[in-house]
Write a sequence for this structure.
């Protein structure tokens, strides 16, 4: 897992071959003005989901993992708390891995919580269980999906 600001995104471009393209998009676009929906940057290998979400409590937010994609999550409208736990510590699946949607859900709770401010980003790799969406009210969020 990585947490930082978009101003420092260049430091992480070497982590994955598609990160530079992803971070260039995040730095150059007016993220608050993007329409809700999916934006393809490089087919199924790199795309962006722009969503308006309603925040949940830590008890309501679901722990999740992905196998095929890395998430780069950027709250735009307001700060969001995200939980984290190493995926190999997850022991209570509630929904098995869905290959089509690239997601599995767990009843486990986070070992750590981070507060991600607007225009900061959190990167979650397949080895990262994450519990996003902990906040109040409705807000815009950008989720970049990067194929592993």
């Amino acid at each position: 897992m990585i947490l930082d600001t978009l101003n420092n995104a260049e430091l992480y471009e070497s982590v994955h071959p598609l990160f530079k393209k992803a971070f260039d998009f995040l730095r150059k676009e007016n993220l608050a003005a993007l329409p809700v929906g999916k934006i393809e940057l490089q087919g199924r290998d790199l795309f962006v989901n722009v969503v308006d979400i309603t925040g949940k409590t830590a008890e309501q937010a679901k722990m999740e993992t992905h196998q095929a994609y890395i998430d780069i999550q950027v709250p735009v409208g307001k700060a969001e708390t995200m939980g984290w736990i190493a995926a190999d510590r997850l022991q209570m699946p509630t929904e098995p891995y869905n290959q089509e949607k690239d997601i599995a859900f767990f009843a486990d709770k986070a070992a750590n919580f981070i507060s991600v401010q607007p225009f900061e980003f959190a990167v979650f790799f397949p080895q990262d269980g994450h519990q996003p969406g902990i906040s109040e009210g409705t807000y815009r969020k950008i989720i970049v999906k990067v194929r592993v």
Q: What stands out?
A: The first helix runs from residue 19 to 28.
